[in-house]
Design goal:
It contains eight helices and 13 strands. By secondary structure, it is of the alpha/beta class. The chain has a single domain, classed as Ribonuclease Z/Hydroxyacylglutathione hydrolase-like (Metallo-beta-lactamase, Chain A). It has a seven-stranded mixed beta sheet with strand order 1-2-3-4-5-6-7. Strands 8-9-10-11-12-13 form a six-stranded mixed beta sheet. A hairpin with a 2-residue loop joins strand 3 and strand 4. Helix 6 packs across helix 7. It is elongated. The N and C termini lie far apart (about 50 Å). Bound molecules: zinc ion. The site of zinc ion has 5 residues, from loops.
Length: about 290
């Protein structure tokens, strides 16, 4: 079978599992946050708290969890993991240092070794982020193995921040990637703290990785084929803003001249395009010194 056929099958299985479990494991009370656990593939599941998502892997020797999201969400997840799987969290891996994804790590710190990229640890300590500080850090790559299963952690350089890692579950063909890529959704607002050119490089590196299912930190589950459109959007945005600047246009004039209607079906297009343009303009202005 070809790689793409395998990917299609894996996606079909993942989609089916998603729809089967979404209705039953579902959302909590209408006033509270929407929390859910859905099966992705093999031993890997997706955890939702409102607009934030992480993943976890269940093994015979315990659970490898990723972003705890916040303390209440983490406490909910811990109780669900105990009742569904009867296993403690042995490893807790942060996708990057941002508090909206990794608060609440202390919930798991009594049983788990906490892992993050070395820059993430620095920011977490400096900012007193309300979570457990990482016990273990790495710079470029690390493989975590538990119960005969593994997850490969890769730092692809700066992009959305300077501590983002992606996590590949090789047996399941799943990539968990937070804030560096989404499926059919614009990057967040005015691209704060972003290194755009390095970010485009990170997306190319992700496109070259071997996985079928893309499980992002926000938005729907996708496939590896969702990465290239996201990268092309960033490249087109960069090129058009740069062209406007070369023509001596003001930011407002650039907002009028940019045409990214090819991406109008992306999520947040109406809300964030103007902010994306502003962020790109700021980045390119800083680059120009
Ligand atoms: Zn972030």
């Amino acid at each position: 079978m070809t790689g793409s056929l395998l990917r299609s099958i894996a996606l079909a299985l993942a989609s089916a599992a998603f729809f089967i479990t979404a209705g039953t494991s579902g959302a909590s009370a209408q006033d509270g946050p929407t929390r859910a656990i859905t099966h992705l593939a093999g031993d890997v599941y997706r955890f939702q708290n409102d607009r934030h998502f992480s993943v976890f892997m269940v093994t015979s020797e315990g659970i490898v969890a990723t972003d705890p999201i916040n303390a209440d969400a983490a406490a909910w997840l811990e109780a669900e993991l105990d009742s569904r799987f009867g296993q403690p969290v042995k490893y807790l891996i942060y996708s990057h240092d941002h508090a909206d994804h990794i608060s609440g790590g202390e919930v798991f710190a009594d049983t788990a070794t906490v892992i993050a990229q070395e820059n993430a640890r620095k920011h977490i300590v400096e900012n007193s982020t309300p979570t457990a500080a990482p016990d273990l850090t790495f710079r470029d790559a690390m493989t975590v193995t538990l119960g005969g299963k593994s997850v490969e952690l890769s730092y692809l350089g700066p992009n959305h921040g300077d501590s983002v890692i992606v996590m590949r579950f090789p047996e399941e063909g799943i990539l968990f990637a937070v804030d560096v890529v989404t499926a059919d959704r614009l990057p967040w607002r005015d691209l704060p703290g972003a290194d755009i050119d390095a970010w485009i490089g990170s997306l190319k590196a992700i496109e070259a990785m071997d996985f079928a299912i893309l499980s992002p930190g926000h938005g729907r589950v996708g496939t590896r084929d969702d990465v290239a459109p996201h990268r092309r959007y960033m490249e087109d945005l960069r090129a058009q803003v740069a062209q406007g600047m070369q023509q001596g246009k003001s930011l407002d004039e650039i907002r009028q001249s940019v045409d990214l209607s090819a991406y109008k079906d992306f999520g947040e297009y109406d809300n964030w395009l103007s902010l994306n343009i502003e962020g790109m303009h700021r980045y390119l202005s800083e680059q120009a010194g």
